[in-house]
Amino acid sequence: MLLILARNNPELNPDLYQGDIMLTDEQRKALEERKVMNDSSYWWPKAADGYVNVNYRFAAPSINQTMVRRAISSWETNTCIRFHEITSADGKPHLIFQDNNSGCNSNIGRIYFWNGQPVNLAPGWIPVHEIGHAMGFNHEQSRSDRDDYVIVMFGNILTSMASNFDKRGTINFGVPYDYSSVMHYDSYAFTSNGNETLIAKNPYGQLFMGQRDGFSFMDKRIANLQYNCTVDEYIQIITAPACKKVRLTFTAFGLISRASASDNSCYFQQLIVRRSDILASQPYCGTEILSGQVFESVGNRMVLHFISRLNWVRPGYSATITFVQDQTSPNW
């Protein structure tokens, strides 16, 4: 059954590079020189307003536009990339989303096709991965440091597909390898015998390879670094005006739970709410913060510090921030 599922994965087309990447002749030559990911000429340009603007259109009304727009919204929410729908080819680089019953695939990076570069989507398949290729991202397991994190089981891979597991000279921006990246192959990609083709050196990572539910924490991080987006991914510093303090009211909270009752650190995921710059705080995870629960700062500053060893946030947390009078302030 695993063999059948792997071969029916619409991202695994044996006629395309790594199963779902269309290459121009120039890119194929550059790939041989191990520099595609490194070549910023394939990145979409950043405008003076700080945003990366990408035009797109739909090839036909039959495509699942709701699913595409949901994926686009995920990119816009987590990065400085903004997508703008157009109705016809405008002679400038843009994406064209179209149905493709034979599978999902995309060019890598921005290509100068006057009538648009195709992003082909199989019915029902989530497009956030293919949009990633169009933004210039390679597969995670192609990273230059991948051998430190996964074992490629070449004996289980279709012989003609072995080159899809080659490493590339990628720019990783100092971001750790990410098993849960939306750009990662699943464990059985291009299997010849139903056995795993990728083995995570960290056994916990095996559970997350190939997920297509959405961005991982590190996906957001590397996208923002590549496009130089001004986004604070890990630490949020909230400063109230003088003589006021920060009031944080949670409206939702859900992280990976503690590994056991004796796990005092929330090892896999945690949020630390520091009520001042120096006051320590216990870590919170699971559903330990209730909706409506309030935290107030000591002084006019609060620090939120999120840590994830899984690089995966689901569903995450949300809160409202207000500034209230600090009656302990000497100037009140």
UniProtKB/TrEMBL annotation:
PROSITE patterns: ASTACIN. SMART domains: ZnMc (SM00235). One of its GO terms (biological process) is proteolysis. InterPro entries: Astacin-like_dom, MetalloPept_cat_dom_sf, Peptidase_M12A, Peptidase_Metallo, Sperma_CUB_dom_sf. The keyword Acetylation does not apply. The active site is at E130. Zn(2+) binds at H129, H133, H139. Binds 1 zinc ion per subunit. Pfam families: Astacin. One of its GO terms (molecular function) is zinc ion binding. Residues 35-230 form the Peptidase M12A domain. It comes from the Eukaryota. Keywords: EGF-like domain, Hydrolase, Metal-binding, Metalloprotease, Protease, Zinc. Its EC number is 3.4.24.-. Its cofactor is Zn(2+). It is an enzyme of class 3 (hydrolase). PANTHER family: DISCOIDIN, CUB, EGF, LAMININ , AND ZINC METALLOPROTEASE DOMAIN CONTAINING, METALLOENDOPEPTIDASE. This is Metalloendopeptidase.
